[in-house]
Design goal:
The complex is a heterodimer of chains A (708) and B (413). In chain A, 52% of the residues are buried. Chain A has one domain (7-196, 216-256, 269-421, 432-707): Maltoporin, Chain A (Beta Barrel). Chain A has 708 residues and is mainly β. Chain A contains 3 helices and 39 strands. In chain B, strands 10, 11, 12, 13, 14, 15, 16, 17 and 18 form a 9-stranded mixed β-sheet that branches. In chain B, strands 5-3-2-31 form a 4-stranded antiparallel β-sheet, with no helix packed on it. With 413 residues, chain B is mainly β. Helices cover 3% and strands 41% of the residues of chain B. Chain B has 2 domains: 1-30 and 69-155, no CATH class; 157-365, no CATH class. Chain B is globular and about 55 Å long. Residues 1-29 of chain B have low confidence and may be disordered. Chain B starts with 5 loop residues before the first strand and ends with a strand. Chain B has helices at residues 10-18, 294-298; strands spanning 6-7, 33-38, 46-51, 58-59, 66-68, 72-77, 80-85, 90-96, 102-109, 116-120, 124-128, 138-144, 150-156, 170-174, 177-180, 183-192, 205-211, 227-231, 246-248, 254-258, 275-279, 291-293, 302-308, 313-319, 337-342, 347-350, 367-368, 371-377, 382-388, 393-400, 404-409. The chains are: A mainly beta (708), B mainly beta (413). At the A-B interface, strand 28 and strand 29 of A face strand 9 and strand 13 of B.
């Protein structure tokens, strides 16, 4: 990014901290669907056995530990999550080498993109969800998404159950997490569900190396300091009610969700050289949705409609310079905030989403499915203080629709499952803005249209009793975000010629299972290949104004292996490891010159990581249970910039991480009353996911959970 | 800054003849040049690179160079190189030790990034931030080249003509910091104050003159100019991102260049011609008898950048403005050519053999053994050229395996 870029000085997507407002593609809505359409009429076939490369994480073993969805996902083969701090901090999830916007998130099949940071996965205590489905690279049509690198779908409990699950945890850094999900279905065919969470943390962990300066800023050394402006709070409440198992509907329901958060920022995402004492952001999300599902004899249909409004506001309103001790001096420049110009910038997104899909079962071995998802986003920006910043003042909007058709075959007594699908992506974007066209301000409208056809296949074959082979392929697309194609009306110029990011994704896996009298062993090995091109990147080509262009091609080759052993419900052991080579395949940069890093590893991306989890469970009698687990997480060292460039002694690196956690749980009365103790990073290792941005050290949590 | 550029050392000559060979080696003991090298990768990673020779083989950051974070300005003062980061909010200094090794000196932090630099007597760095449209005081830092440490900072204002209505006033953007005879001269571009990046007040050249060192005006907490001089013969002095809008020649005259078209970042374009003004030695006014009308002399060309190369000469980049060029396009399209201008004789000599190229920012240049090195990046490739100051001729040197080189520094004498 150009150093004389004007955008560096003001909150736009190019500044360091504002991505908080823009990258939270993850969110939540509470609507039920049959989990996966292709299997809707084959309930005996778990989705894992379809040809797609899907990892289904059963959350039951984590329910008593103080974990959120991200922390569970981060123990999964092929997934690495990088965060910049404690509870509620920004994170980047990578799945088989693709990451960020290239991964799409769902809750019960509904896309969560643009739902706001209060509904991102790190807010969800694990006991609100029953399972997490991870679709690696190839995504079934039922999810109706432009997911370049895969999808993650959160599955909540079935609607015909009655339960209460509530928990409270307290721990280090003054962290409180309250979670509740309760449901009754004994209401003459009606059901009522409520779920919610409340998370707060001071995140005041100790930074072990921050600069000590004199009055002029001269760095005299380093010291440790406690974070003092990093408090986070998020809240969510969902109410859902409806009718189940009627003759005319298996489910018809209405759901309301409110969520908000407030997030203080201690420093920019990329540097601890400047410190904030007041910078913060707030998000509110309001969602309403309705859905319908019915299975007839051969036909099943399902549909949802969702509308919502999401606002994210960024506050840099104090003209102050802070230091790591928490003291400040007033800036002599009253227009300047702590990061850039004094600013209170609010983005408002209105979303409308609808989907209709169905399966038709010709016979036991042939199912045809179809799914149409449409999505409308209107975005508007409003700046309260820095009134000359008119980014997004004029609304811009995108509409995208994805139509998918899938044919599924089950042959040879279901030993062979074949899926073949086609997806049609249609995209329209529009902005009206005052644009500076070579010196003349003109009110102009920019439109962009994209149409792509993707396709894919999944195949699984049961080789014998213990081995299953799976392979899948998809030619997939990620459609541009509104600001990527339309600009912001100010600092980002529109690029109507922008194309979708595209990738060929290929998986080959072998699942081996061995069940003995007193133990079971499972091993899964997957080889993955991604040939992705036209990555959308910001190009600062005109000093003040930049533009998004398709500039980068990447090839990913990787292997992941997970092994698990369970012995007599007494001992369990899981280990997984992932190695991925993410190679830059761009021969030239946006300027047309040869790319210096062509054919070399993409920097600042983990390429080798592994997880271990093992535990013992004692049933003292039918009534009481004690279990203890040890978890380890490893990430190999990697470089911030191109590996081959620069003197080895003067390169910026993200050092190797190896952390260990302990969980001890005690359950009474068949898991009705539970107490869990969690110790994270027990050896207090100083660890980083991002260059020089330290993560929390050792932390203890105590969790109380009641479940019936 | 001219003082820092005059290097006629025999030691350098000796070291130049003593080495050669593998140009990609990082053997500091025999290196002669320090380069601010930019990779052509996604991050455009920058390296402070030590090289023995610039004239053969390839220049690459493979396995060599001090890695820098983000986007940086590079500015040499004496034998110290200051690197100021935009994303790190830090200025780190480097020097060469007695044993020839390139080492980090010190770091100081700031909270508003520097945009313009200058120096005093090879001993002191001057650095200032600036604002695009805010009527805030700027801050001038001084740093000691010997230690790399900040030695002072003071708020100052140049021209704060806020009318209270955005778009009616303008905000200054300094394009050079020059100290002569205890006076600090700051030429500047005037941008509008409603964030449209317009240069609406573009019918005059302006230079603010301060007492140096800067002191707070009595009863205030900021320094103010003792005078602001203006001249209607040309437009605002300097281009955005350059730090040599105004330079000193060997005899102590100051010369400032003005550009003024859309492509060079002036919007709207000025009606005044691109040209060069003089503030003669001892004077604190523009020299009414001196104006070098570049557009007239070149049949419509415009100066994008210049820097002193000794005597009365400057090395300059010119381009031909036309109606099809987009705003700011000279910063990213290969339309620039190199010339040597004799300021007193008012002659322009094309340097033959150097293709049209693109250049966003150029560190202040140093003359090394009568030669100046430039980085020339076209749409196809990037090469170093060695320019002989005396003969105005160029020799094509090493190929640059990257986006280009921001500057060439001699920190070895």
């Amino acid at each position: 990014m150009s150093g004389i870029l004007k955008t560096m000085a003001i909150p736009t997507p190019q500044t360091m901290i504002i991505p908080v407002l823009f990258t939270s593609a993850i969110a939540y809505a509470e609507v039920e669907l049959d989990s996966i359409s292709i299997n809707a009429s084959k309930e005996e076939t778990s989705i894992e056995e379809s040809g797609f490369n899907i990892e289904v994480i059963d959350t039951s073993e984590y329910l008593n530990s103080n974990k959120d969805i991200n922390q569970v996902l981060n123990q999964t083969a092929g997934i690495n999550i990088r965060s910049i701090g404690g509870l509620g901090s920004d994170f980047d999830l990578s799945l088989n080498g693709l990451s960020d916007k290239q991964i799409r998130y769902f809750i019960d099949g509904i896309p969560m993109e643009d739902f706001g940071s209060a509904l991102s996965l790190n807010n969800f205590p694990i006991n609100l969800v029953e399972g997490i489905e991870v679709y690696k690279g190839v995504v079934p049509i039922s999810l109706g998404a432009d997911a370049l690198g895969g999808a993650i779908n959160i599955v909540t409990p079935n609607l015909d159950e009655d339960f209460i699950d509530t928990s409270y945890s307290y721990g280090s850094f003054n962290t409180h997490r309250l979670a509740l999900v309760a449901q009754t279905s004994n209401l003459d065919g009606y059901f009522l569900r409520t779920s919610g969470y409340l998370n707060t943390s001071d995140n005041n962990y100790t930074m072990k190396s921050v600069p000590v300066t004199d009055d002029l800023g001269n760095v005299l050394g380093t010291t440790s300091a406690e974070r003092f402006n990093d408090e986070y709070q998020s809240r969510m409440l969902t109410l859902k009610a409806g009718r189940i198992d009627a003759s005319w509907a298996d489910e018809i329901s209405l759901s309301l969700t409110y969520a908000d958060n407030e997030n203080n920022h201690q420093h920019p995402d990329t540097s601890t050289n400047i410190v904030f004492g007041k910078v913060h952001s707030k998000n509110t999300s309001k969602l309403i949705s309705a859905n319908y599902a019915k299975r007839f004899e051969k036909l099943s249909v399902k549909s949802y409609f969702l509308a919502g409004q999401i606002t994210e506001t960024f506050y840099d309103t104090y003209s102050r310079s802070y230091d790591w001790q928490g003291s400040f001096v007033d800036k002599s420049s009253p227009s300047q905030g702590e990061l850039g110009n004094r600013s209170q910038f609010k983005l408002t997104d209105d979303v409308i989403r609808l989907s209709i899909g169905g399966d038709y079962r010709f016979n036991n071995s042939s199912i045809l499915s179809m799914n149409l998802t449409a999505n409308n986003l209107d975005r508007k920006g409003n700046e309260k203080i820095d009134v000359e910043n008119t980014s997004f003042t004029h609304p811009n909007s995108i509409q995208k629709s994805i139509l998918g058709i899938n044919q599924s075959f089950f042959l040879f007594d279901d030993a062979l499952n074949i899926n073949a699908f086609v997806k049609q992506y249609d995209y329209h974007a529009r902005i009206i803005s005052d644009q500076d066209i070579d010196g003349i301000i003109q009110n102009s409208e920019t439109k962009a249209d994209i149409s792509n056809t993707g396709y894919g296949t999944g195949l699984s074959y049961q080789l014998n009793n213990s081995n299953k082979l799976k392979t899948s392929y998809e030619k997939t697309y990620r459609l541009p975000e509104a600001d990527e194609i339309l600009g912001d009306g100010m600092y980002i110029r529109p690029n109507p010629d922008l194309k979708a990011e595209t990738s060929h994704n290929l998986n080959l896996g072998l699942i081996s299972q061995l069940t003995l009298a007193d133990s079971s062993i499972r091993n899964e090995v997957n080889v993955f290949y991604r040939n992705a091109s036209d990555f959308i990147r910001y190009v600062p080509d005109q000093v003040i104004k930049g533009i998004y262009k398709n500039t980068k091609d990447v090839e990913v080759t990787g292997i992941e292996n997970s092994f698990s052993l369970i012995y007599q419900q007494f001992f369990d052991f899981q280990i997984n490891a992932t190695y991925q080579d993410i190679i830059n395949k761009s021969k030239t940069g946006y300027n047309g010159l040869p790319d210096t890093s062509y054919n070399s590893r993409i920097p600042n991306e983990p390429y080798l990581f592994a997880n271990l989890r093992m535990g013992l469970t004692y049933f003292t009698d039918d009534y009481h249970k004690i279990s203890t687990h040890w978890s380890s997480h490893y990430v190999e060292q990697y470089f911030l910039y191109s590996e081959g460039s620069g003197d080895k002694d003067h390169k910026r690196e993200i050092p190797e991480q190896l952390t260990h956690d302990i969980d001890i749980e005690y359950s009474i009365d068949h898991n009705k009353y539970n107490i869990g103790f969690t110790a994270n990073n027990i050896f207090d290792e100083t660890v980083f996911d991002n260059y020089n941005i330290q993560k929390p050290g050792r932390a203890y949590y105590l969790k109380f959970r009641y479940s019936i | 800054m001219s003082q820092s550029k005059i290097y006629t050392s025999l030691i350098l000559a000796a070291s130049l003849t003593a080495c050669g060979g593998d140009s990609s080696s990082n053997n500091n003991e025999t290196a002669s040049f320090t380069l601010s090298f930019v990779n052509n990768d996604e991050a455009a990673t920058e390296y402070a690179l030590s090289e023995k020779s610039l004239m053969e083989g390839t220049i690459t950051s493979q396995g060599a160079g001090f890695e820098q974070a983000g986007w940086n300005f590079y500015y040499p003062v004496g034998n110290t190189l200051f690197v100021s980061g935009y994303t790190e909010f830090a200025t780190t200094s480097y020097k060469v030790n007695a044993d020839g090794s390139f080492t980090e000196l010190n770091t100081f932090l700031f909270d508003s990034s520097f945009n313009t630099f200058g120096n005093v007597d090879d001993k002191t760095l001057l650095a200032t931030n600036s604002y695009w449209y805010q009527h805030d005081d700027m801050t001038m830092y001084t740093a000691d080249a010997a230690t790399g440490r900040a030695t002072g900072k003071i708020n100052y204002t140049i021209y704060n003509d806020s009318t209270g209505t955005a778009g009616e006033g303008t905000v200054p953007w300094p394009t050079a910091l020059v100290v002569r005879d205890n006076l600090l001269y700051i030429p500047y571009i005037k941008f509008d104050d409603n964030n449209e990046n317009k240069t609406t007040d573009n019918e005059a050249a302006y230079v603010a003159i301060f007492d140096y060192p800067l002191v707070n005006k009595e009863g205030t907490d900021r320094a103010e100019p003792i005078d602001i001089i203006s001249d209607l013969r040309t437009t605002n002095i300097g281009t955005h991102g350059s730090t040599t809008g105004l330079i000193t020649t060997d005899n102590g005259d100051l010369y400032g260049f003005s550009a003024g078209s859309l492509a060079s970042g002036h919007n709207p374009a000025s009606d005044k011609p691109s040209g060069i003004l003089r503030i003669a030695k001892g004077a604190t006014e523009f020299d009414a008898d001196y104006f070098f009308n570049i557009e007239e002399a070149t049949n419509g060309q415009e100066i994008f950048w210049f820097d002193s190369i000794g005597g009365n000469k400057v090395l300059a980049r010119l381009f031909t403005p036309n109606d099809t060029q987009a705003a700011w396009s000279a910063f990213s399209t290969p339309i620039l050519k190199l010339v040597i201008i004799d300021l007193v004789e008012k002659t322009i000599t094309d340097i033959e053999g150097i293709p049209l190229h693109t250049k966003q920012t150029t560190s202040s240049i140093e003359i090394m053994d009568g030669k100046v090195y430039v980085s020339v990046t076209t749409a196809e490739d990037s090469y170093i050229y060695q320019i002989d100051v005396a003969t105005s001729t160029a020799i094509k040197g090493a190929k640059v395996e990257g986006k280009g080189i921001k500057g060439f520094y001699n920190l070895y004498n």
